[in-house]
Amino acid sequence: MKTYTYKESINKLDTLLKRDEGENQEIRRRVLEIIDTVKSQGDAALINYTEKFDGCRLDTLRVTDAEIQEAFDLVGREMAAVIEEAAGNIRAFHEKQKEETWMYNPGPGITLGQHITPLERVGLYVPGGKAAYPSTVLMDSIPALVAGVDSLVMVTPPGKDGKINPNILAAAKIAGVHEIYKAGGAQAVAALAYGTESIAPVNKIVGPGNIYVATAKKEVFGKVAIDMIAGPSEVLILADGTANPVYAAADLLSQAEHDEMAMPILVTTDADFGEKVITEVYRQIEADLGRKEIARKSVDNYGFVFVAENLEQAFELSNAIAPEHMEILLPEPMQYLERVRNAGAIFLGSYTPEPLGDYFAGPNHTLPTSGTAKFSSPLGVYDFMKKSSILSYSEDALEKVYTKIAAFARSEGLDAHAKSVERRYENK
């Protein structure tokens, strides 16, 4: 892990955090080729790409009810109960985000408002293989279902045996996903956007994936909506010398084990505490970490300790970084909440570790990364809703203002706009 002072880092964070890296044009070229092939060849392209990239030849793309039930049985009652409890927590939290159609009357004969409707069909991408995360299924599907989406379609790559990870299928069954297809990578994103013989196109695509998936989502944006372009996972811990370095190190490693580019960051007002955390991070990697090689590369290349002179500087650094996950390990952490301007999720106190949010508490773990928390929010029910404006004027109400509207229209050179309101009162 690399250590910097506030003065050394505050004006060059994007450079230090390697957030200015350019787009990989070769990956984009290959993704565009895959998209075009899926558009022209449909299911055949998906089957061929699955054989090429996933090592299995499929007869059909859609997962059957029998396969889902088999997976549910393999997961077992104990794990299924855990998934069901987590799903209940996630559903309860997201129910609070629901919006309703509203209207008001600002004057006689006038009704204005907003009509809220769910998206009709949504595609959910779920990574497979080593990155098989049933938690992602719950986090990305339940808000859509709470919103009232009619058709929720999941795509996920199969293993070499042609089967889907049973935990993923069990989570999909518990959440209530409507359709599941064996397809992954950029080709699955293309299928969701443009449709094939088996997969009808969707209105929006959500869910994480590798660089090919992220690039494909970027390329189909406009044809469909997308949730976000997710970068490597991040956690920022803000702490002073009163925090427990063992806890802090463990929480940093909970992100470092995701992949080699995950970014574990400590911002502290105590340089000695920073050194203790670094020592503890490497001790825990060697002592009992299963994915130690991944974690070591993460902390070596993307791990940072920023030492601030005071909490004001510490929060300035944190807000400039705008982390995906932020833990505040300070005494009475709630009192500092208003200082946080930019963070995907905020974890308050020593007994609110980041994995609590990943799996169980209820708030969504699909969060803005790479500094996009400066302008983005966690995935939520609102991502699966559309808003339409409502306007209704009576004849008398429009008569009171139509000359003003006509004057405004003519100031913009739009005579037909003016005549649209004037013709209604020509003979009065």
Automatic annotation (TrEMBL):
PROSITE patterns with a match to the protein in the record: HISOL_DEHYDROGENASE (PS00611)
Species: Eubacterium callanderi
A GO cellular component entry from the record: cytosol
Residues that bind NAD(+): 125, 187, 210
Protein name per the record: Histidinol dehydrogenase
Gene3D superfamilies named among the record's database cross-references: 1.20.5.1300, Nitrogenase molybdenum iron protein domain
Cited function: Catalyzes the sequential NAD-dependent oxidations of L-histidinol to L-histidinaldehyde and then to L-histidine.
Catalytic activity: L-histidinol + 2 NAD(+) + H2O = L-histidine + 2 NADH + 3 H(+)
Binding site for substrate: 233, 255, 258, 325, 358, 412, 417
NCBIfam families found in the cross-reference section: hisD (TIGR00069)
